[in-house]
Amino acid sequence: MTVSKLGRVTMLAMVAVLICFSYAAANEVINPAEDREIFHNNSNGTTTLIVDGQWHPTVKFDSGGNQVEGRVIMRYDLTSFQGIQFSQAIAHFHVWRVKFFKTLSIDTYYYEGSGTITTDDFNQGTDLLGTFVYDIPQGSEESYDPDEWIEYDVTDLINSRTGDHVYFNLRLSGEYPAFSGNVFDDGGTEHWIYISAVESNRLERPYLEISPPFVNKMKDRKVYNGRITLDGSGAYDPDSDIISYEWDLRCRGNSDLDISASGETVTIVNLRPGFYDATLTVTNDQGVSTTSSFVIFSGIGPQSDYDGDSDVDGADLASFAKEFGDNN
């Protein structure tokens, strides 16, 4: 069979697309369970939760008589990944249209919660992920489509979550009335930033992108007599093979007692007394790793018999404090 130069180029392009698609398929995309606008009237102090279903909820400021500020809250439900940690988690938000801005500056805050969005979420957010700044081209201040993505690596925050619902609060940088970094165009009294929503008819919906391998969050452990079994069998990767499980136990205050082991399930029989900062690192055949950290306490003899004399009394507390107090 003879293949023309154009045909070869086309085939190579198709192979490249297939490779890229195969690689991208390894990541999972989670859309918000809910995205809502919340407006706060700085004149009378009222806060209003706007009805759900807006295609493009707005981060806004009304510089007219009402002095209304608008924020966009997005909630992600991670119940189907309960107790799972990821190699990476990236949050993506799309800025579609801007009206009556010369320079826009948006802060994105992260926080955890337990349910649907309410007016209380207007002021929620303790972890500032970053600030997105964009200068509107001169002459386009009345209406302009930046078509830009706001993206943040939230791996550490997501992996340390304590519940199943995580939230993002997108708002104008700074506080009313001095929104630091924002420069409003005086051609209008309402200044809008349209954020694409999950209900949008456009492709640029917000999403949380999570990457395998997926690893169950390891729980802290207490053991006695120096024996512990560590089980990493809960780790999985839907698109690749897991090729290694590495366990690293570092004793606080005494590196001579550090222990390393390999295997999906390992049993350690010589764990000396102490506190250990432990990690399980799982790696797939693409070379991508996910780590779960936990703490192990190794005691002597029966539970709470820290001095090993076969009874539990005040001497055990003294023995515990002497051996571990300065190192923990």
Question: What is the gist of this entry?
Answer:
This protein has helices at residues 5-24, 155-159, 314-324; strands spanning 28-30, 34-41, 47-49, 58-62, 68-77, 84-85, 88-99, 101-113, 127-135, 148-153, 165-172, 183-184, 190-195, 207-211, 215-216, 221-224, 228-231, 242-251, 259-262, 265-268, 274-284, 289-299.
Topology:
Blueprint: H1 5-24, E1 28-30, E2 34-41, E3 47-49, E4 58-62, E5 68-77, E6 84-85, E7 88-99, E8 101-113, E9 127-135, E10 148-153, H2 155-159, E11 165-172, E12 183-184, E13 190-195, E14 207-211, E15 215-216, E16 221-224, E17 228-231, E18 242-251, E19 259-262, E20 265-268, E21 274-284, E22 289-299, H3 314-324
Parallel strand pairs: 16-22
Antiparallel strand pairs: 1-14, 2-3, 2-5, 4-5, 4-13, 5-11, 6-15, 7-10, 7-13, 7-14, 8-9, 8-11, 8-12, 17-20, 18-19, 18-21, 21-22
Structure summary, number of beta strands = 22
Based on Cα principal axes, name the global outline: elongated
Spell the H/E element sequence.
Answer: HEEEEEEEEEEHEEEEEEEEEEEEH
Question: What kind of oligomer do you see?
Answer: single chain
Q: What profile does the largest beta sheet have?
A: 13 strands, antiparallel
Tally of domains? 2
